[in-house]
Description:
By secondary structure, this protein is mostly helical. It has one domain. It is 79% helix and 0% strand. It has twelve helices and no strands. Helix 3 (61-84) packs across helix 8 and helix 5 (99-107) runs antiparallel to helix 10. InterPro entries: EamA_dom, EmrE-like. Keywords: Membrane, Transmembrane, Transmembrane helix. This is EamA domain-containing protein. One of its GO terms (cellular component) is membrane.
Amino acid sequence: MTTALALSASLLWGLADFGGGVLAQRMRALTVVVVSQFLAVLALGVVVLASGAWRETGGLLWYAVAAGVVGPVAMLAFYRALAAGPMGIVSPLATMGVVVPFAVGLIAYGERPALWQYAGIAVAVGGVVLAGGPQRGGGRVGRETLGLTLVAAVGFGAVFALIAEASTTVSGLYLALFVQRVANLAVGGGVLWVQAHRGGEPALGLGEEGIRALRPALPALAFVGLADVAANGVYALAARQGPVTVASVLASLYPVVTALAAFGVLRERLRPVQAAGASLAVAGSLLLAVG
């Protein structure tokens, strides 16, 4: 069950990243993040009220708040690193944040993966790196870009670890996800407002033409926000059922999903190294699933 849930989280994250990337070609990336999270908050609010999850209490929600604050910071660092490039190096490097929840599993929970699972981890992570399409002789990664990528990686890994600790029940998970999204919206919206205020730009950095373009994009934005929320929830369930060391690695395979989605939908050419990476990621997943 852990394997199925973690792979489902990876699928959802990969599709959300693909959708967000496509939308970011039409509007500011931060706008995509804020609007999609706002729509996710509305949907989660209905779920929390209807399920009675709002009655859940406890200090565990602070983990959700922390995840909600860290998430936008990591995402902003990631987007800035991608803009500086080269993307083929930055994108797979950012997934190395899986080290954070993996270490939590080893240290906090005393998990000890079997030998073949360690092999599966190495193969799967290597596959993710190759799926990013690294190019020989490509541009060098500057220190600032490398620093931003490191911040993004650690931030993504921290969100993995924090959201897994944010609840112990299903109804509590609904509330935790809602709190996380509210914190996401507060931080992302605050940054967007400050940027617009300093630059004298319109709300959400869209302008009149941008707002007209936003309306038909609302279904896609809703999908991005809800897929991201669902991925967090499914991963939290996977990590609860454990082991975290396996769940975190399997859930980090989402760049492979994004690359395959770009190949299938946008007809982007999948380079041989990317195809090999996707195959390795699948092989690594099979090794992990054996345990």
